[in-house]
Amino acid sequence: MGDNNSPPGSSKEADHDSDANALVKDDSSLETIVRKFQDSMSVGKRHAFWETQPVGQFKDLGDVSLPEGPIEPPTPLSEVKQEPYNLPSQYEWTTCDLDSEETCTEVYNLLKNNYVEDDENMFRFNYSKEFLRWALHPPGYYRSWHIGVRAKTNKKLVAFITGVPARIRVRDVIVKMAEINFLCVHKKLRSKRLAPVMIKEVTRRVHLENIWQAAYTAGVVLPTPITTCQYWHRSLNPKKLIDVGFSRLGARMTMSRTIKLYKLPDSPATPGFRKMELHDVPAVTRLLRNYLSQFIVAPDFDENDVEHWLLPEENVVDSYLVESPETHEITDFCSFYTLPSSILGNQNYSILKAAYSYYNVSTKTPLLQLMNDALIVAKQKDFDVFNALDVMQNESFLKELKFGPGDGQLHYYLYNYRMRNALKPAELGLVLL
Amino acid sequence: MGGDWQQLLQSVVLGLIFSYLLAKLIAIVVSFKDDNLIITRASTAAAPAEPKPDDPARSAESGALVHEADSVVAEHGSVRNDSAGSEAGSDDDWEGVESTELDEIFSAATAFVAAAAADRTKVSTEAQLQLYGLYKIATEGPCSVPQPSALKMTARAKWQAWQKLGAMPPEDAMEKYIDIVSELYPTWTDGLIVKSKGGDGSSVGNDSKGPMGPVFSTFVYEEGSGNDFKMDAIHAFAREGEVDNLLKCIDSGVSVDAKDSEGRTPLHWAVDRGHLNMAEMLVSRNADVNAKDNEGQTALHYAAVCEREGIAEYLVKKNADTNVKDNDGNSPSDLCESKWPWLQHAKE
Q1: Shortest CB distance from B218 goes to which of A48, A219, A406?
Q2: I want to staple B143 with a disulfide (CB 3.0 to 4.6 A). Which of B162, B174, B275, B346 is the partner?
Q3: In chain B, which residues have their Cβ closer than 8 Å to the Cβ of A85?
Q4: Cα–Cα distances in Å, from A179 out to A97, A135, A159, A372?
Q5: With an 8 Å Cβ cutoff, are B208 and A116 in contact?
Q6: Is the pTM above the cut of 0.90?
Q7: A223 part of a folded domain
Q8: Residue of A nearest to B199 (CA)
Q9: B149 has a pLDDT exceeding 90
Q10: Residue-wise pLDDT tens digits, A345-380
Q11: Keywords on this record (chain A) (predicted)?
Q12: Is the ipTM of this complex over 0.90?
């Protein structure tokens, strides 16, 4: 793991600078990206952990001489550390079996009380147990990648991190990766710096399965994002969103007009728009594979994956498609997942019900109309807000369908895989939960 | 890793030689005038600090202190400063020895003590020595260095303070240290909170954004456009529910039914924002419950759209017209998602 940033050929360090300068002159967007990174890193702030990891480093940004692909070659499995990393003495590793109701409840509670919040600490994600089982049990999952940390004394679950296997295509290479998610450390233990050792432990267990790459997201800038996406929000229940502080009512705007603005028809407009069913899996897989092939980084879904990730499951994932009334051909598809959040400290409401845009494909129905129908069914299902990233072709409908920009940026990362250039959000075909 | 050790060893050896020479010199030259313990800066370098990552600001602060290291307590600062150089994030720092909350409070306490020493706050020699001993236990463990010669009284006093604590566990030493600091400076944590709030993100209690994972995003606040929009103070008071200010407006002669550029009266605004008490006050001041805005909507339309049941019920009681149509031909109940029987009935 030591020095991983100097593959053969990087000896001409001096040249890089001039190359980079030349590039910056030509490419003002690169310049802004570089500046953005520098701004977001406070002076002197170093990523002591990430600088030791095989990830794209800031200093290599825009260096086109470095090859795209794995940063470190796989090591023989026999050389992978066999024992878990050391935890502080009061804690021990545990593997979490989400099929056990008891364990699942423990994980659920840990996340419910300690996972991600908004900047103002008004909301905290409240992933449901069914959602967690769905997210962590895709085809071919490894139980050993569902890692918990317990306090030795009382066996309380105090930290959690997970990986699930995925085949992700980067340009024309399909790479077996782990999608790392649900890193959560109990609020009382935040200063113990458990996160780095947890990341290393999940990495070790991923390596033990002969997998050497990973994909993950973060709200913070680490070395180095492959792209930075922006969240957009579409109010479905504006009054509640305003009451709970998710959105604000401008001084010159009336509630009455706001409610009218976001009003949606009672039922979808597209003929043949219906819920996806099991027998649609082959058709949806074809549609989706074809659609995702246009993006630079996207999952490589087969029918098993589609059945798992996209077949509707109550309160977890919803998928709709358009079946042509004449030909019965499946022409379009849209989906969103259900991620509620706890509303912290509001007397009237305790849960914010949010739908998150997942994978959408349009071939016959205009994407705008398809997504408007998705909004309509989400409203019918009593969601308060519909969220979407500006990935894939989403930008084409966001403004027109009255999505407003969010304050959240989501950075995407690959572990041990270098991308020569950062992607535009629209070049990314991957949604992580 | 190897480099770090070499560096550390080197600095320890050099420091020892240097301190020995300097201490000797000082032992000869300096006599103890009063109870003030004078510690040479050199002894600082002799202390092989167990480095803990520190934020640059604090290191800088303690760096400045080195120049006036004239008390026992100030030494802590400089020890910390020495450690900053060898901090380089090697892999092993992360394993098993993660800093705890106690660590953080302790290091904040040492920084505070160093700063307080710079201010020359009066602290008894006894307390200073106690802090010194605890500090050494917390950072280095039990005393295992040989007793300094009887000539070096300061060094000897310090050594004794350390040595007499025996094999006290480091955590206990940190806690005791914090207790003493809290006793000496009851308000020392006040500054700490401010500091960690504006801190570099690795301090206590930040972390709405985790190191990894999804992001919780909310709407960016955008003031709606509409530059030709105009409203008066009375509308703003109605909107904000400021009854007293609104009364003043009325008493100073502003019409209770004054319209903004969209034709809305204060009653429209009060109902829109859900201020029942304001609505009641306006109606009691003879506001027109059936006043229409430019779209032909009354306050009852607003109450229906915004589902403000209590207010709607009140307006109906005050003879608001339930059959009135707006410019689109909708009555209040046409616009209401919930079906309120008293509004429905009225419609029939």
Answers
A1: A406
A2: B162
A3: 95
A4: 18, 10, 18, 30
A5: yes
A6: no
A7: no
A8: A42
A9: no
A10: 899 999 999 999 999 999 999 999 999 999 999 999
A11: Acyltransferase, Transferase
A12: no
